[in-house]
UniProtKB/TrEMBL annotation:
UniProt-listed InterPro entries: AhpD-like, AhpD_core, CMD-like
Record keywords: Plasmid
Residue span(s) of domain Carboxymuconolactone decarboxylase-like: 28-106
UniProt name for this protein: Carboxymuconolactone decarboxylase family protein
Length: 170
């Protein structure tokens, strides 16, 4: 067993995962709309994904969305900054949503009501709902990847799935 705790966010139980997956399935029509890029551009969506991933620290999502972000037009330095939690160099019209995404992720998908109201006031209710749906999508990916790593880490007694533990002990 690793001597240090697994520090990335993960699902604590199967019912959490099932509830979030069921939400996405219930909203799959809106999810398809959000992923088409008509209301939220591909680059904006990837910035949202990278901000949430920077909080949840899923290595699989970081790698995947870094590649997708390049295709969407982001640069390597911008991707690195987003994964480090820096958003100051992003387009100014996206900053409120990126700040919201960070707070949303830091609060385990339960932001302050005032924060959501501000988001809806800036972008409109429809776009705010699509932003939330994109955030929920990446959360499922992040926590699924981290839960997989947690199980690997536990089953292998720290040999696999928890590189942060090996790096700190080296």
């Amino acid at each position: 067993m690793p001597t240090k705790p697994f520090r990335r966010r993960k699902y604590d139980n199967l019912s959490q995962f099932r509830a979030e997956l069921a939400y996405l399935l219930r909203n799959r029509k809106n999810l398809r709309h959000a992923l088409k890029g008509e209301t939220i551009s591909g680059a904006f969506r990837q910035r949202l994904m990278l901000v949430v991933t920077s909080v949840n620290r899923c290595r699989y999502c970081a790698a995947y969305h870094s590649q997708v972000s390049l295709v969407a037009g982001l640069t390597h330095p911008e991707i690195a900054e987003l994964l480090e939690g820096t958003i100051e160099d992003c387009p100014s019209e996206e900053i409120p949503a990126l700040l919201y995404a960070r707070q949303w992720a830091e609060n385990n998908s339960y932001p302050d009501k005032e924060a959501y109201d501000e988001l809806a006031g800036i972008y409109g209710v429809e776009k705010a709902e699509l932003i939330e749906l994109a955030l929920k999508t990446i959360r499922v990916g992040n926590l699924s990847g981290n839960t997989f790593d947690y199980l690997l880490c536990r089953l292998s007694r720290g040999l696999w799935g928890c590189p942060e533990l090996r790096q700190k002990s080296a």
